[in-house]
Amino acid sequence: MAIQKSLLAALALLGATAQAAGVSRKAFGFATGTTGGGSASAASPSDTAELTSWLTDSTPRTILIDKEFNFLGSKCTDCKCCKPSSNTCGSSGQNAIDLDSSSWCGSYPTLTCTYDKAALEGIDVASNKSIVGVGSAGVLRGKGLRIRNGVSNVIIQNIHITELNPQYIWGGDAITLDGSDLVWIDHVKTSLIGRQHFVAGYEASGRVTISNSEFDGQTSWSATCDGHHYWTILGYGKNDKVTFTGNYIHHTSGRSPKLEFNSYWHAYNNYWYNNTGHAFDVGDGTNALIEGNVFNQVDTPFLDDSSPGKTYAVSASDKSSCDSALGRTCVANTLTSSGELSASDSSVLSSWPKGEFGISVVDASRVKSAVLKNAGIHA
Fold it and tell me: What is the pLDDT of residue 5?
């Protein structure tokens, strides 16, 4: 299949396709054209050292993650931490690692703590890599991935990133983009993350698609004292173009996502469930088009920012404006047991990048079941 014909068809295809051969399907959305390791023969690294070597070298590769790669074990004991004002729930809250390079802890009360050092910095992935999990076996435990400093053409598919010091703010980020281009993140699961499940840093992250992935916010150390993770998805890259579709975002309490600066985010056919805080926080400079999504038990689907960006969330009452501006049928969002999603800045539509890049937005009535069946890693 050259491009995604529809969300349901593409998701079904992955479930029927063996992963051993490498990447399944082709990139769509803003990341159209991403080929990763291309025609490089698929191979499985033997251990964490070989995995790190293959990820960071200059050779185009298709890297099969066919087992768990465990980076845990190098502990920092009796190290500097602090108790931020956000931790009002004691041992079930998140304290913060006091990094020497950051003044974040400021005057907060200091503590000593023990954490795993490997998680603080992700592996720096080089250009032209496909990282593909085999069945449900592909796990990176205790280490995330970073794509930055001019790196381009990377595919991450069907892997689970987990256990990055979840009890600590600044404990680690699962996937970081910062000064990159052409990145496709597909069928990835993230869980038990200390800081961000996904973060696009201040440098441009270019063209990105995040699809069919699961952001699992369930945790025993919550900044909001309710077993829900707060720091979830952060888009700070300048001039980013991000397609965000088919994803399952659940048991979070904020930043799901938080977007700022000059970027375009197209969020369609995603399923948000059980968010006790806010989903979208759209700040200055961002253009966000939100359509065909389902919000279920989300307290605040859209947070009014003090310096708001431009957001158009399609509703049944005004979708005709979107249809006319984009020259296709736009799809209204659905909200159940949730707050309001009131954002109708039509300037988003007039400035939206031309071309749909192989996407097809399905009706919101079909989204929940499809996402629950297909998002995240697949056997």
Answer: 46
**Catalytically annotated residues:** 255
Are the C-beta atoms of 297 and 318 separated by less than 8 Å? no
What are the φ and ψ backbone dihedral angles of 50, each rounded to 5 degrees? -70, -40
Rounded Cα–Cα distance for residues 248 and 54 (Å): 30
The CA distances from residue 37 to 104, 123, 125, 230, 363, in Å, are 38, 17, 12, 34, 34
d(CA 377, CA 212): 9
Amino acid at 149: N
Half-sphere exposure at residue 123, Cβ-oriented, CA atoms within 13 angstroms: 24
- How far is residue 112's CA from residue 95's CA, in Å, rounded to a whole number? 10
DSSP per position, 143-175: --EEEEEEEEEEEEES-EEEEE-TTEETS--SE
Q: 113: helix, coil or strand? A: strand
- How confident is the model at residue 101, as a pLDDT? 78
For residue 366, with 0-12 CB atoms within 10 Å meaning exposed, 13-18 middle and 19 or more buried, which class applies?
Answer: middle
Q: Which residues contact 134 (CB under 8 A, 6 or more apart)?
A: 19, 20, 44, 64, 65, 66, 158
Q: Which domains does the chain have, with CATH numbers?
A: 7-74+119-374 (2.160.20.10)
pLDDT digits (tens, 9 = 90+) for 264-304: 999 999 999 999 999 999 998 999 999 999 999 999 999 98
